[in-house]
């Protein structure tokens, strides 16, 4: 399962990296065209002509896009690796659900604003030796996890050496 997860994360992150590179390369070409004063008489009907006329902007924008895409790719691959490691070597504990947060965010899709609602399970656990309280937050879920009410137990996989590395099993 870990190999499948890593493969899916890799494909998704590669798509994101390519997307950022292409979009910012085109934006770089357009910005260079505007800044050089060459906007008079320019025809944006052909994407290829616009990009070929402004190679400097394409390289700068594409480079920035590639860096952003690469950082997203690294973060996604690291998370996949952490999940695989936690499922194989992590310590399973039972935390107490304190609340389920309902969050909403907006994004533009064409000319309309779309809203996406997601849920995050928040749970706490008291370390038996240190008596220190730790709070864990699940990944975003598009559905409300009905079997986890405040006060119920939830399984969390932790790295005993670094409690910042965990996975709430929703």
Would you give an account of this structure?
The protein contains three helices and five strands; from the N terminus they run αααβββββ. It has 170 residues and is an alpha+beta fold. It has two domains: 2-88; 91-168, OB fold (Dihydrolipoamide Acetyltransferase, E2P), CATH 2.40.50. Strands 3-2-1-4-5 form a five-stranded antiparallel beta sheet. The longest helix has 35 residues, at 55-89. The chain is elongated and about 65 Å long. It starts with a helix and ends with a strand. The model has no long low-confidence stretch (mean pLDDT 84).
C-alpha geometry: elongated
Structural class: alpha+beta
Strand content: 25-35%
Helices and strands, in order, run as HHHEEEEE
Low-pLDDT windows of residues: none
| Whole-number mean pLDDT | 84
- Radius of gyration, in Å, reads 23 Å
Percent helix, as a range, is 40-55%
Strand order of the largest sheet: 3-2-1-4-5
Major sheet: size, sense and barrel closure?
Answer: 5 strands, antiparallel
User: Count the helices. How many?
Assistant: 3
Any idea how many domains?
2
Number of strands: 5
N→C terminal distance = 17 Å
Topology, pairings included?
Layout: H1 2-35, H2 47-53, H3 55-89, E1 91-109, E2 112-126, E3 133-137, E4 153-159, E5 162-168
Helix pairs in contact: 1-2, 1-3
Question: Could you list some keywords that capture this structure?
Answer:
about 30% strand; 5 strands; alpha+beta; OB fold (Dihydrolipoamide Acetyltransferase, E2P); elongated; 2 domains
């Amino acid at each position: 399962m870990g190999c499948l997860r890593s493969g899916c994360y890799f494909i998704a992150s590669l798509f994101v990296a390519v997307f950022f590179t292409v979009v910012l390369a085109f934006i770089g070409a357009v910005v260079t065209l505007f800044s050089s004063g060459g906007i008079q008489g320019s025809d944006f009907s052909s994407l290829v002509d616009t990009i070929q006329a402004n190679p400097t902007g394409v390289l700068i924008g594409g480079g920035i896009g590639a860096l952003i895409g690469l950082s997203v790719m690294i973060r996604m691959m690291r998370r996949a690796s952490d999940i695989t490691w936690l499922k194989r070597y992590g310590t399973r504990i039972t935390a107490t659900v304190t609340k389920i947060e309902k969050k909403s965010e907006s994004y533009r899709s064409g000319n309309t604003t779309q809203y996406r609602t997601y849920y995050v399970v928040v749970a706490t656990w008291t370390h038996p030796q240190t008596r220190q309280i730790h709070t864990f937050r699940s990944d975003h879920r598009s559905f409300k996890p009905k079997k986890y009410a405040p006060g119920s137990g939830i399984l969390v996989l932790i790295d005993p050496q670094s409690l910042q590395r965990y996975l709430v099993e929703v």
